[in-house]
Amino acid sequence: MLPGALLVSAPGKVILHGEHAVVHGKVALAVALNLRTFLRLQTSSNGKVCLNLPNIGLQRAWEVARLQLLDTSFLEQGHSAAPTAEQVQKLKEVVGLTDDSGHHEHMALLAFLYLYLSISQKQRPLPSLDVTVWSQLPTGAGLGSSAAYSVCLAAGLLTACGITPNPLRDGETVGRWASEHLELINTWALRGERVIHGNPSGVDNAVSTWGGALRYQQGTITALKRLPTLQILLTNTKVPRSTKALVARVQGRLLKFPKIVAPLLASIDAISLQCQQVLEDMVAAPAAEHYLMLEELIDMNQHHLNALGVGHASLDQLCQVTQVRGLHSKLTGAGGGGCGITLLRPDLEPQDVEAAKQALSGCGFDCWETSVGAPGVSATRPPPWMPPSAGPSAASETLPGLRWAAGTSGRSPAVVPWKLQGWGPKGVPQTHLLGPRPSAPQTLQCRGVLD
User: Fold this and answer.
1) Which residues belong to any copy of the GHMP kinase N-terminal domain (predicted)?
2) Where are the domains of the chain?
3) Which residue in 118, 120, 145, 146 is the catalytic one?
4) What's the per-residue H, E or C state across 3-65?
5) Is 146 a catalytic residue?
6) In this structure, what is the dihedral angle of CA atoms 69, 4, 175, 413, given to the nearest 10 degrees?
7) How do strand 366-372 and strand 402-404 relate by DSSP bridges?
């Protein structure tokens, strides 16, 4: 077991290109988003396993002695096995979760208990742990929040139980697990995702585990070469949408106008492949013309997605607001609202970026300046300082990088930016700034590959 606290973080994800075309066998490019979920795990001697989710003001504790008496033989299966619906229902029963529990809280608790009991089931006594998870990711916006949650839980629990080693070395502030350990983390994270989501594609947890960028096509996930870190604006229109309905709309157009829609899907596939080539070329020698090509690809893909019928007035407004400032945007995920991304060229002046952010905020949107191509799941050493507490909760005294937003009641944690080392252009080490995010309370929930 760990001698002290373990701090883990994992990124969210966005779809760069390939939305909706991926449903029809085409390529999609998914990239790690440097808005992250964090986990702090510490062993204790109180005979309890405690889970604290400050974003949603939820704390639960279970007596280890009582958990050990439960019949959890239904969890005894190989690492690659997927939890069945019957097993998930059985877990609800043995831990006393009712169907009328809050859905998002319910799923977050269930995924935690499933991973805790499955990973530590051969340990006696079961470990007493204090686990806190908090996030910079907005939820319900197709950014892989539940996958980042599952990846953090899997990495933290596997390390706490000694199944994977602690990757931090003396004097290091950031550690990454070896490839074989990342494979195991990803496998368990996918099982956690299946508890929450039922039948996820596996893209979200793979991006959160490995970081960088992945190519997805017909169930095959391939890690791309080391890619440059791209600065973006991520904008949440906050318009709700149904992924199922949008997928059905594209399918309907394909059946109605096959000679029109099939070429659109093939063109989106070509855009994804061209983008992959440009990004790989940028690793060797990034140049201004690469960014111009990326901008053209963004514009073309957005027009194609509108032609497929998955645009929305809010996304049109996003594109118009950024276009008048010389920026290029597209939807990411299922469309119909949700989120969009805007590429930020290196030559942009900070005041121009700030003006775009202010204009988007003025439309009622949430906007973050962040990056894609971020590092995957990592163990980090807490900073040698603690942020000031501006709220009544003791959590701000124990969570590195977390403080309570001024004027709140303790339900709205705001993240103090700190740094994570990753890779930039030409394979040169690059520092990634973690934070900030809006101060509105967030919840954990799951979406599929388009989300």
Assistant:
1) 124-212
2) 6-223
3) 146
4) CCCEEEEEEEEEEEECCCHHHHCCCEEEEEEEEEEEEEEEECCCCEEEEEEHHHCEEEEEEHH
5) yes
6) 80
7) unpaired
**Torsion sign over Cα 340, 345, 346, 348:** negative
What confidence score (pLDDT) does residue 263 get? 98
Q: What is the pTM of this model?
A: 0.82
Phi, psi of 427 (to 5 degrees): 75, 15
Q: At what angle do helices 313-323 and 350-362 cross, to 10 degrees?
A: 150
Please state, in angstroms and rounded to a whole number, the distance separating the CA atoms of residues 444 and 433: 23
- Residue type at position 153: L
The two three-digit tokens of residue 428, written as one number = 């040169």
Reply yes or no on domain 6-223 having CATH 3.40.50.720: no
User: What's the pLDDT score for residue 441?
Assistant: 31
As a whole number, mean pLDDT of residues 323-335 equals 95
Can 272 be counted among the known catalytic residues?
Answer: no
Strand-pairing partners, residue 235, are 340, 367
Task: Determine which one of 130, 204, 269, 451 is catalytic.
Answer: 204
Q: Any idea what DSSP says for residue 171?
A: T
User: Strand pairing of 213-217 and 28-43?
Assistant: antiparallel
